[in-house]
Structure formats: C-alpha cells, structure tokens
Amino acid sequence: MNKTSDKSEIPPTKPDLATEPCCKVGIATLGCKVNRYESAALEEELQKKNFSVVPFNSIADVYIINTCTVTAFSDFQSRQLIRRAHRMNPQAKIIVTGCYAQIAPRDVAMLDGVSMVIGNSLKHQIIELMQNNADASPCVLSGDLFRQKEFCNMPLASFGDRTRAFLKIQDGCNSFCSYCIVPFARGHSRSMASEDVLSAVNKLEREGYKEIVLTGIHMGLYGHDLQPATDISRILQKMCELNLDTRIRLSSIEPNEITADLLNIIKDGELLCPHLHIPLQSGDDKILQLMKRDYDTIFFRDLIEKVHSTISDIAIGVDVMVGFP
Fold first, then answer.
1. What does pLDDT average to in each consecutive run of 10 residues of the chain (325 residues)?
2. Is the CATH code 3.20.20.140 the one for domain 7-143?
3. 147-320: what CATH class?
4. Where are the chain's structural domains?
5. Is 170 helix (H, G, I), strand (E, B) or coil?
6. 84 CB contacts (<8 Å, ≥6 apart)?
7. 123: Cβ contacts below 8 Å, ≥ 6 apart
C-alpha cells in the first residue's frame, strides 16, 4: 500500500461523473480469471469513454472494486480494499461489484464510503450506472441472477503487451457443490454464442496473440444452454478448422466432463496446449459425497490413467481442498 499519497491531491467534493468524464478511476480485482477478464474489459471501456485509469493505490475520483466471495478470507480482502480506497480519498465514489457484492449487497452498502453496490448481472453496465447515479446515499443494484438467461458479453480487444490473451466464453454454474457459493454469485450456466466465440478467437489471433486462454466459471457446461445445443469439444473442433496461428488453452474443467472427443482433439491437433486443470477437491470418497461431487476416487484415478494413455506428454494440474467439513 502506498502510504506517501499527497493529501493535497484529494478533490474537495465528490465528482459529478455525468459532467466530468475525464476523472481518474482506480480498479482493484480479487478472485478468478473470469473476474480479471471482466475488470480488464471494464478498464478498456473506461479508456474509450475518456476516463483516466490510474493505479488503485493512488488518489482517484472513483474506485471500482471487483470482489470475490469464494472464501471468508476473500470477503475480508474485499472489505479491506473498500476501507483502503476510502482512506486514500474520502471524497471518492467507491463502486463495489463482483461476487461479494452479489451475495451480500446490504452488508457492503453499510461500509463507510461505498457509493454503489452493483451485482454481477449488471457489471457490464457499470459505467452507465455510475454516470447516472448522483444520489449521495448508497445505491444497491444486485439484480436476480437466476432470471438471467443470456450470456452477457464484455468484449476485450487488447491485453497490453502480453502475448497471452483471455477469452470468457461461459458464465455461471449448475453444480451446487455443498461447499461452494459460486452458483448463487454467478447464476445458472450461460454460454457465448458459437459464432461469437469463433469471431473473437479470430480477432485475437489477427492481433498477434500467441496463446488464447478460454475461461469460464463451469467450462464443461459450455454450449448446453444454446439453441441448438453444443459442447466444449465441438467448439474446439471448429477452432481447429480455422487453421489459427496461435495456441488455445483450457482453464479448469470438471472430471466428468473430460470426454474421449476432447482428449482426441488435444491429441490430434496442434491447436490445443497439452494441458488440463482438473479439480479433485478430495481423495476421500466420503468427503466427495459430502461435497456433492458426482464422482469418486476410482473414477478420478481411471480418468487420469485414460488421459495419460491418450496423451502421454500432457501436463495435469489439480485442485485439492483441506479443512472440509
């Protein structure tokens, strides 16, 4: 944290964002790749609208905090960032969004300095909402995620000077594991239209990115909600047919959603990185049952053997939780 900020830089009053579009905005992000993607898309859109995006630990007119709620510690970190922003500039507008804002909007609104609480369902409208809100009292706009049926696209054209790009193609989760609050924070699974995915991948490849990471909350459900329905293997096969001069990497995918088709696409083509991140969560069958995970340790062991026998040089990452229940 920067403790040497010049207090003389603090503006005397809260900014009027409807008349001061060039004001300074600081963004802080907690949590997953999807959150980081959405913050980057928001930053890009702010710059297009002539806002000046500055480091979060500097004096800004507006602070946007994109929160996480996957653990109690991430809730604590979210509150810390809100308090830090208020200390840095008590006159700033503080806008809190993301999963903690979605799950506990009233609690967030009670924190000192918070101007707006915007849930995940309205995250893509943050700029419009903050420009239209002149009310001094905290405004809470959390929305009902379970009524949201359409994928909300937040396009992102550039990742600075990085060679790796991220593309969010799916949001939400239908699994409701007993330890996980994410379905309540993100809603049901929703997928980007296949043609939009292919168009976005083509665009990123033309811009020179050598690796594109496909991200989502529950990647294995990609396409199940579309009409006509599709799946992750079929969209990857369509990408292979584009003859792209880049690599595609999958983010985490559930054990029971790794199919023979998916493994063969990774094995036979040069497009997909030989890498899978597979959440195990526990190596004990009783714990897996209590977690409401729909596989057991024998299934997971057999899966890993199948993956290795199909793709001998594949890299596999796993998630393992401790302390449950």
1. 45 58 89 94 95 96 97 97 97 96 96 96 92 78 83 86 89 96 96 97 93 97 97 97 94 96 92 96 98 98 98 96 90
2. no
3. alpha beta
4. 7-143, 147-320
5. strand
6. 1, 57
7. 38, 42, 66, 97, 98, 152, 154
